[in-house]
Design brief:
It contains one helix and nine strands; from the N terminus they run H-E-E-E-E-E-E-E-E-E. It is mainly beta. This is Carboxypeptidase-like regulatory domain-containing protein. Residues 96-119 are annotated as: Disordered.
Length: 149
């Protein structure tokens, strides 16, 4: 009877160990983001926007947050993951009584919003077209903008 080699089981075990270490290391490059506070005001020609939402969306972080504006256009976000965001100002949805929080998770929010208003120029009402950007840092930051064409 030929003598069985112990090399094959050793190599198989070594390959499994290397694969497990590689799989574990893949997650090590990404650190969990801290959080920051953001406050500010959104106006159009120096006048409050009124009923609308400000939306922060980051594909890199995987974070989307929409916050209603107060009557003077101000807003406050207590906790938002740090990182770079595209910002849009979204009018309330008047079709079907749907609120901003009711969205289809299989599509980006920006593709689900189609309504606009005179005081929210179309380019600002979608994260696909908005030129607005904000970097959220740990601690507090301000984001105020006057929407004008």
């Amino acid at each position: 009877m030929p003598k069985q080699s112990n090399v094959r089981p050793f190599l198989a075990a070594a390959c499994v160990c290397v694969a497990l270490m590689a799989a574990t290391a893949i997650g090590c490059g990404r650190t969990d983001n801290g959080t920051g506070e953001v406050h500010g005001q959104v106006t159009f020609n120096q006048q409050p926007i009124g009923k609308a939402h400000i939306m922060f969306e980051s594909g890199d972080i995987g974070s989307v947050l929409a916050v209603p504006l107060d009557s003077d256009g101000s807003f406050h976000v207590d906790e938002l993951k740090t990182g770079e965001y595209v910002v849009a100002v979204v009018p309330p949805d008047t079709q079907g009584g749907r609120e901003i929080g009711d969205f289809d998770g299989s599509k980006p929010l920006a593709q689900q919003r189609s309504t606009t208003r005179e005081n929210i120029p179309a380019k600002f009402s979608s994260t696909l077209t908005s030129p607005l950007r904000h970097t959220v840092v740990e601690g507090e930051s301000e984001f105020s903008v006057d929407l004008a064409d």
